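Quarterly update from the structural biology core.
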Amino acid sequence: MSFELGRRVADAVLYEGYVLYPYRASSVKNQVRWQFGVVVPRGYAETGSSEPWAMQTECLVEPQGAPRLSVRVRFLQVQARSLERLTADGAFETVESLEVDGRRLVTWEEGVEREVDGPELALDADLDRAIPLEIAGGLDVEDVRDGRGERVGRILRRRWPIVGSVRVGAEALGSLLKLRVRIENQGAWPEADDASRDQAVRRSLVGAHTLRALRGGAFVSLLEPPWWAAEAVAGCRNLHTWPVLVGPEGSRGEMLSSPIILYDHPAIAPESPGDLCDATEIDEILTLRVMTLTEEEKAEARATDERARQIVERSDSIPPEVFARLHGAMRSVPSRDTLADWEDFVNPPGTAPPETAEVEVCGARVSKGSRVRLRPRRRADAMDTFLDGHVGRVEGVYADLDDRTYVAVTVEDDPAADLHASFGRFFYFDPDEIEPLEAPERDSA
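Predicted structure, tokenized:
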């Protein structure tokens, strides 16, 4: 079964916070990394760490025949990149950075993508399957040579082993099946005084999440379940992860369980030209920030990580028409019939528009043009304190979708009152927060 429906969203989850603006290794925020979906060795967790050694997802499946299940676990394995310079006597010494023919290299911890696929399983109430999760450590050495081909140093990339398991089980809940996927990090942990979080993360699953796909069945939304499944959903126990449906709206054949809270059917904006490792940021703003980095800052970012290099290069070369699309987009335009229904809903036929609507306050009729004294009672924000006692001019009487009435005003002694009125920028008050001063001024016929 394919996991492509949720792949782009899963990639965004995998690299969330991996390297952040300004994308330089020397930046403080890039020296405190690996924050999402970290599953540490059990021995480290039991020393008092706040980070878990297990991650568990429980969700519901509505069988449609004989369901078959596929599970994929994805995460990053930390790879420490260190540098050594070749000295005059032929030895190597550790350094923080190397400059070779204008090319800069810096020390850094890279992330290596890992995927663990289980076999396709028959999903029934008897399912209880353990899938080994074993990722080998290793050391790779790469020579660094100058333009003449002379060796001037080397890059060492070291990885630490990760040992754990993925346990898949199910149980019957009436006509539904409760599916459980549990990831455990059972790796050894050295009992040493200097055993730090940094060392633990090197033996951890980072950005861990699971994808699961069904044939012959459908997942049930845990965010908006049907009424008949609400009690079963409430009984699902999810630890350090949140399962959501992925794929087109209405599809229920694939689910992503993410360490970041998402809604059902999340999607990457089609206008986004590439990952910025920060899905919580606005692409346009972040791209503009990257473009303002100095050449020195961009050089360090390129040296920090391959993904950082791609971000800098993409931001510097983004075509104007692509950049313009980042400014905003209308996802859908309602049909003429739908638009008419919406207008009838927000402005029911037969109701007066705000410009002619009235409301009775202290026995007086208040409408557009009325002068009122402001007496805020709710103290919703600081402006209520500033406006208390000021005289306002009513610009309209509005009702929200709950039929609650609000009076929109501009402030008489505000020099920009006419400008605000032209743009429809008003202050809104409940009727009991104003005192009528006089009858409204009527426009001459």
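The longest helix spans residues 306-317.
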